[in-house]
């Protein structure tokens, strides 16, 4: 039987394959998959409902400190990786609403908001067997994680993946456009004052170019002692 506690932190830039790999690894490890970005989406949804502007960092941080946000194993067979509950309501589907998409970047950019949501992320991370993804998990959220992974891929490879995802949504973008946007986002994530995106010093770096999902998952499971 697996142990009651396991924390696997998987960080890396956008479109490095974190969600695909981490969700598969979590299944192999009998663990909860937790994309920490959903916490910011839950706060964004709450802000929209309470009439708090995405630019108002002070009020957003105050709201964050008093919200009840829970992440639980999936209850519906609709492809979701987890259930997200906000103030006692399952809001998993609403977190992908266009209004949330448009506002979440502004909400998550506030240092006060990032600080306020740390306790929520840490509580979920330490609730049992959890595989977390984000950009500052191994450096800020749970620096004492049992396993730390930095998942990466070349800018061109990541842009191709994002371009395919957009095309599947009916959005046509040139590769150059996607690469430029991704490079800009990488730079913003790496240069922000609070919790900049960077590998933890003791993280295992895994570059996914030319590797199958199964190969990468197998390596992570082995590092976590599950293979």
From TrEMBL:
Record's catalysed reaction(s): CMP + ATP = CDP + ADP; dCMP + ATP = dCDP + ADP
Binding residue positions for ATP: 12-20
Annotated Cytidylate kinase domain residues: 8-223
EC top class named in words: transferase
Keywords for the protein's UniProt record, in alphabetical order: ATP-binding, Cytoplasm, Kinase, Nucleotide-binding, Transferase
Compartment(s) where it occurs, according to its Swiss-Prot or TrEMBL record: Cytoplasm
Example GO biological process: pyrimidine nucleotide metabolic process
Main location: cytoplasm
Coiled coil regions in record: none
Keyword Lipid biosynthesis on entry: no
CDD domains (alphabetical): CMPK
Enzyme Commission number(s) of this protein: 2.7.4.25
GO molecular function annotations of the record: ATP binding; CMP kinase activity; dCMP kinase activity
GO terms for cellular component: cytosol
Family: Belongs to the cytidylate kinase family. Type 1 subfamily.
Record's protein name: Cytidylate kinase
Organism ancestry: Bacteria, Pseudomonadati, Thermomicrobiota, Thermomicrobia, Sphaerobacterales
Chain's gene name: cmk
């Amino acid at each position: 039987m697996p142990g009651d506690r396991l924390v696997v932190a998987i960080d890396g830039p956008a479109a490095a394959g974190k969600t695909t790999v981490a969700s598969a690894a979590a299944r192999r490890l009998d663990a909860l998959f937790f994309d920490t970005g959903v916490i910011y989406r839950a706060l964004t949804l709450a802000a929209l409902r309470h009439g708090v502007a995405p630019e108002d960092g002070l009020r957003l941080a105050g709201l964050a400190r008093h919200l009840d946000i829970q992440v639980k194993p999936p209850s519906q067979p609709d492809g979701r990786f987890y259930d997200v509950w906000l103030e006692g309501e399952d809001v998993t589907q609403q977190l992908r609403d266009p209004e949330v998409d448009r506002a979440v970047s502004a909400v998550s950019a506030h240092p006060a908001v990032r600080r306020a949501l740390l306790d929520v992320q840490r509580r979920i991370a330490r609730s049992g067997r959890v595989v977390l993804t984000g950009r500052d998990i191994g450096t800020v959220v749970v620096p004492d994680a049992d396993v730390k992974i930095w998942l990466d891929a070349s800018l061109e490879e990541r842009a191709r993946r994002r371009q395919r995802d957009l095309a599947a949504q009916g959005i046509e973008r040139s590769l150059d456009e996607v690469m430029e946007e991704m490079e800009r986002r990488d730079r913003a994530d790496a240069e922000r004052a609070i919790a900049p995106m960077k590998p933890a010093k003791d993280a295992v770096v895994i570059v996914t170019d030319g590797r199958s999902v199964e190969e990468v998952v197998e390596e992570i499971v082995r590092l976590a002692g599950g293979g």
